[in-house]
Write the structure tokens for this entry.
Amino acid sequence: MQPENLVFLVVLVTSLSVFGFSAFRLISWLSVARPDVRWDRIPERIATTLVVGFGQSKILRDKTAGPIHAAIFWGFLVLLFAATEMILEGLNGAWSLNFLGPVYSVVTALTDVFCLLIILGTVMALWRRYVSKVRRIQVESEKVEAGLILVAIFTIVSALLVQNSLRQHAMGADYSWAFRPVAWPLGNVLRSALGADVTGIVFHTAWWVHSIIILAFMNYLPFSKHLHVLTSIPNVFFGPLGPTNTLEKIDFEIEGIEKFGVVDIEDFSWKTLLDGYTCTHCGRCTSVCPANQTGKVLDPRAVIVNIHARTMDRAPLLIKQEKGIVFSAEEQVVWDKKLIGDYVLPEALWQCTTCGACMQECPVNIEHVPAIVGMRRSMVMMEGAFNEESALLPDVYNNMETNAVPWGGFAHSDRADWAQGLGIKTAAEDATMEVLFWVGCAGSYDERAKKTSRAFSELMQIAGVDFRILGTEENCNGDVARRTGNEYLADSLTKTNIETLQRYAVRKIVATCPHCFNTIKNDYPQFGGNFEVVHHTQFIRDLIAEGRLKIDREKMNNETITYHDSCYLGRYNDEYEAPRATLSDIPGLNVIEVERSGDKGFCCGAGGGRMFMEETVGERVNINRTNELLATGAETIALNCPFCTTMITDGVKAADKIDSVRVRDIGEILREHVVE
């Protein structure tokens, strides 16, 4: 072994040993959190990893930054071959990957191409960060680090390109299968300019620069925001496979539980701590957060970053505590800090609408909403800690406990009054049914939402649907309690409702409220409530397709309509087409898409219990969204959710357009256009 090879061996072994220690420590810190089964449904996880992780599908949603990052990511995958060959050459100058034959030809050609793409990508990334100053990536504390990392990446690939251009003339290995369409022409230029003696020096300098920076970068990763280079693929693999909004059930029947919700990092699952490791700090989540974009303090990125910071501070102490090691005075100060308060602002947690936009946009499948709701749970169930904006929630909980409805001033006995004169039977009167209409609290009590309940009921009657309602046996579905953190109340409401539904052997449920639809469809199965659940826009679409509802083709309104996607139907349940299909079937309607629509839609501001909270900071979310809808010039704003209807109606009133712009549910619009 040559002296140079021996030096490299020492450097390599030292680097791998230090990295191994750092990696083991990070993995051990995950063990302080709660267990969580993420090894199920392996084929689905592999498919998701291929599409989202390796395919960069979510990264590419950003048409500008997406291709830049994807080029760098794919380039580094290809450059793993170059890194492997670097190690072989470092140990023995006669070793290479040439034995791969034609595969080596492809790999070496791709290496050249991606070296150029990465160089271009890093230059563009530097431009966006320091010249264009894209808002979502402007984090003051990360300016220097981000620049150094980009320069390091630029140097790694530039050095690789230089050494590849001179490799065949400086090493003794066989490179007969190599094909380097960029490096070889560059090598000809360099050899002509430098001469034979200097060429060898340049090669070895480039080789060592490339090698040292790679090994140093590898050992820097565990201590930096670029840890995601190592953890992003595993995080995508272990990410959620079901609806992004599903929250973990708390089993209140287990004896000895001392804490409910997340008080500190040990109350999270290990996947949440891995989320903290994986956050890329890209700010995509923050750029689409309705609270943040309307001037509030909630920053989804900061929530995850601060969970990670708390993990780095507290996890080593938890392990020390398990071993019985006494804390130093400085460690005791860190131990005494609080996750909620010292790291994550309570007011930020209350500002979340649980719209799921953060999770939709996150390129590495981080689960922001469950983490936020987990912390809300501890504030509500452990401390009863409410702020100015959430101060009304105790009254809301009391209303749900006494009358099974979030609003006060209503009697449970009046729950079916909306249906007077329609001849609708309850399940208690006749349990034989095609479908159960889950009316919901808004549809039962809110004057505006009751119009939707009546319109949809009339549509079902026209279509000959044999449906029932629960009437006074229906309770609040529990969504508001669950997503504001009162899981104990939600648990009670859920179990009561499931017992009622099972008593009547209900198989299929239709709901006009996406919150009811989502909760019964996605939350209730955890409690043994397995039903076929559809939203009324889906049900209407099917009735039209089956010919049970016929649209009046003679009636032409020549009306301009824009449609607002509700988060709990669209983003949470991937239903965007059913409402649009109905609108497109109605003659005379000119449907205009608002800029933020479909899976990039913007929240109305009511989700996550925000419907029942005050909004005292920044611009009101519903005003922001309504102004965007009004800017289309549409005469009617179509919706599919009673909460959205309330919020957008308030926005239209605030804009003084209530006399010129109608706010209507899809069911109400269709009711005017069907043949009876």
User: Anything to note?
Assistant: The mean pLDDT is 92. The beta strands are 435-438, 467-468, 508-511, 532-535, 559-563, 589-592, 636-639, 662-665.
